Amino acid sequence: MSAATTESPRPTRHDGEASRARLLQSGLRLFAQQGYAKTSTRELAEHAGVNVASISYYFGDKAGLYRAVFFEPLGSPQDDIARYSGADLELPQALNGFYAGFLEPLKQGDTARLCMKLHFREMLEPTGLWEEEIAHGIKPMHDALLAVLSRHFGVTQPDDELHRLAICIEALGVHMHVGHDVIHQLAPQLDDGASALDRWSERLVMYALAMIEAEMQRRGATP
Hints:
By secondary structure, this protein is mainly α. It has 12 helices and no strands.
């Protein structure tokens, strides 16, 4: 038998993409459930149905896989910021784009919940990625929302009350992730149907506009 007939075929690009995706899925589940330190490369590979060498091939090492699992599934902060930071957007449009960035990952179902669990675990068992998430994700998004509010209020520099208002607006979106299981227990009907998240988005925009109007009244301005 010739050497050409005994060699295993090289993996195709599609096979490689599938292997990487399985490692990401397995890494997300295992890291979220067990933490970084208690999850071995062998366990990750077995769960994903690939060989251990695939981890180093696609991610460099276990830390590289963890980093990809932590940052990739929920998308890029820059993409989310682009949804609401345009200077030509009216305030309701900007808020709609802002909450779309929060709610669209929830359409992925279990993935969003595992990501939230992983982020909580990272805060409790830090590897250094949470500080990076704040610096390169959370803070830029907060600053972009402050810029939207500053334009609406006609100020050049946000004051403490605008920071407070932005944090309250953000909290509505954050709670959809943090409190998802509680919401489901309290009022499961709010999750029913394909349009449930779209209805939530509409309401979050409405509630945020009400908070903005209240702050304008507090400042003595005309809403």
